[in-house]
Amino acid sequence: MKDFDVIIIGGSSAGLSAGMALGRAMRKVLIIDSGMPCNRQTPHSHNFFTRDGQTPHEILTIAREQTLKYPTITLLHSEAAQCTPITKGFEVSTISGETFSAKKIILAAGIKDQMPDIPGFAECWGISIIHCPYCHGYEYGYQPTGIFANGEMAFELTKLISNWTKDLILFTNGKSTLTGDQQSIISHNNIQIIEGEIAAFDHHDGQITTIHLQNGSEIKLKALYARLPFVQHSDIALQLGCSFTDQGHIQVDAQQKTTVPGVYAAGDSASGIRSIANAVNSGGMAGVMANLELINEVFWWERIRIRRA
């Protein structure tokens, strides 16, 4: 089967949620997934009812099994390479050379974090170098913790993390770009600011033990928060001409519609709220709205047919 009602690019939480909504609407759906979710190293997921503390892999396995029980849904383990508009929708080609068509597209491939070239950082990412206190802060509460950021982001992130622990050190990894007032506020909250560049992270299976600075200093920590730059995991949105936010997310409205008609986006690719719960919610919304648009189009053309008759 090469023709579908909807093609979903990305088969993690947002993509599977969109697929389930469409499968229950009896739509023919193709989910194209490369199998590289950004949370694949994360040992535990939190803030998702009924699944708190499970690994992302465990949650994804259950989600995939439940979504694929709907017979109109097909999962293809591949990667979308190109998407072009055609007369009645879109044509999608994969890296393996297969071509499919659909009336609607849902972009749910997520993002790729751009990690600094510091030994040990990538190995700890998602384990003890973390991005979200709501996802991981409870487990590292009241423990020695670092912030890896500079400027406005450093100030806001330090303020946020101080809710979970007061034992904080801010690493600007180079000359601080904080304002004088920001530095004063941070210091008055007994938070040390270290401007020295980081040389390496010692760790055991992703758990930080020591931060080594270029000047030879060593600092013991249990966790480090970082907000990294990112790129879209797929360039399909760019190919289609979708608009992006200043932060780099695909621009969507309240119905998960992008600025390109017939194209929706959900999950991390379209939101700064990086959680499974948010991905599931936005994916479900995208699926429902894509189905509603398909319904409306059928009724619209039937109305035109009756008028012409």
Blueprint (SSEs and pairs):
Layout: E1 3-9, H1 13-24, E2 29-33, H2 56-67, E3 73-77, E4 80-86, E5 89-94, E6 99-107, E7 111-113, H3 121-124, E8 129-130, H4 133-136, E9 145-148, H5 151-161, E10 168-171, H6 180-188, E11 192-194, E12 198-204, E13 207-213, E14 218-220, E15 223-226, E16 230-232, H7 236-240, E17 263-265, H8 276-308
Parallel strand pairs: 1-2, 1-6, 2-3, 6-17, 8-15, 9-10, 9-15, 10-11
Antiparallel strand pairs: 4-5, 5-6, 7-16, 12-13, 13-14
Helix pairs in contact: 1-2, 1-8
Strand segment tally: 17
Distance between the ends: 33 Å
Run of helices and strands: EHEHEEEEEHEHEHEHEEEEEEHEH
Shape summary: elongated
Report the structural category: alpha/beta
Structure description:
- With 309 residues, the chain is of the alpha/beta class.
- It has helices at residues 13-24, 56-67, 121-124, 133-136, 151-161, 180-188, 236-240, 276-308; strands spanning 3-9, 29-33, 73-77, 80-86, 89-94, 99-107, 111-113, 129-130, 145-148, 168-171, 192-194, 198-204, 207-213, 218-220, 223-226, 230-232, 263-265.
- Strands 1, 2, 3, 4, 5, 6 and 17 form a seven-stranded mixed β-sheet that branches. A five-stranded parallel β-sheet has the order 8-15-9-10-11. Strands 12-13-14 form a three-stranded antiparallel β-sheet.
- Helix 1 runs parallel beside helix 8 (276-308).
- The radius of gyration is 22 Å and the shape is elongated.
- The model has no long low-confidence stretch (mean pLDDT 94).
